[in-house]
């Protein structure tokens, strides 16, 4: 008879710690009792567990995204573009994970979702403080949306701080100026809580960078990382919108918006506008 493949691992010769010492174990280190004890479906519907876990996993990824983004912005402020780029590269991978979650979610049909949607009341992704913080740190400053967090002090503080700080793009323009490029003073000092206004002079600055990449290599390389980040963000938004259309059609959202029509409006937004418009003029 031919030799068989093993069907379970032989533990002989291993020195496995059957009772880990020192109070620390896998579960305790990762505080799994809290994470795995945090799913509280409101119904007996099978798909509600998936709905909850997708959102919780997304919030964990958002937490890491913000952790990386805060550090990346701090590095740009300190003219340390290389470590900032490393963090943006990680953010790009996290964004891919987030976008992939739509593939799991779209295994839920309208019939499945409508069985528990009413129980969600007025709750909605609209009220994700981490998502709003991320949008603000990336430069999408829509102050009114912070108001949905008014009743949650911790969330409101997080979001409000992000609203008034210079965004990743603001800090990039400041870095470009420090590197010797001509950046209008209105882009370097302004009320950061206001939406960024695209400026022909900033586009001209990017034109200079893209026309002489050898001279402006660091700024050029960083700019391309920003374009990557925005494209990935847009892919998340588009997949959200299409998944929502597939599951609830053109119903109003539980958050009170028009639903898909609101999500489509967000698709026209630009985080780093001149990095896109400059491409036409090169
Ligand atoms: C069945 C699945 C889902 C449906 C039907 C859905 C639907 C919607 C709708 C209609 C809105 C617009 C606001 C409103 O009026 O409610 C919205 C916003 C939002 N959703 Fe979802 N969503 C789903 C899954 C998710 C998941 C998995 C996430 C991941 C965190 C998410 C995050 C968000 C965020 C962050 C917003 C605010 C977007 C913005 O203000 O630009 N959604 N969603
Ligand atoms: N806005 C969704 C509900 C929804 O998706 C949702 C509800 C509670 C917690 C998170 C949610 N996800 C994203 O909006 C709807 O209108 O069906």
Automatic annotation (TrEMBL):
InterPro entries: Trp/Indoleamine_2_3_dOase-like, Trp_2-3-dOase_bac, Trp_2_3_dOase. Heme binds at residue 240. Its EC number is 1.13.11.11. It comes from Glycocaulis alkaliphilus. Pfam families: Trp_dioxygenase. Its cofactor is heme. Homotetramer. Pathway: Amino-acid degradation; L-tryptophan degradation via kynurenine pathway; L-kynurenine from L-tryptophan: step 1/2. Binds 1 heme group per subunit. HAMAP family: T23O. It catalyses: L-tryptophan + O2 = N-formyl-L-kynurenine. Keywords: Dioxygenase, Heme, Iron, Metal-binding, Oxidoreductase, Tryptophan catabolism. Belongs to the tryptophan 2,3-dioxygenase family. The gene is kynA. Substrate binds at residues 51-55, 113, 117, 254. It comes from the Bacteria. This is Tryptophan 2,3-dioxygenase. The keyword Cytoplasm does not apply. The keyword Membrane does not apply. GO terms for molecular function: heme binding; L-tryptophan 2,3-dioxygenase activity; metal ion binding. Heme-dependent dioxygenase that catalyzes the oxidative cleavage of the L-tryptophan (L-Trp) pyrrole ring and converts L-tryptophan to N-formyl-L-kynurenine. Catalyzes the oxidative cleavage of the indole moiety. GO terms for biological process: L-tryptophan catabolic process to acetyl-CoA; L-tryptophan catabolic process to kynurenine. Gene3D superfamilies: 1.20.58.480.
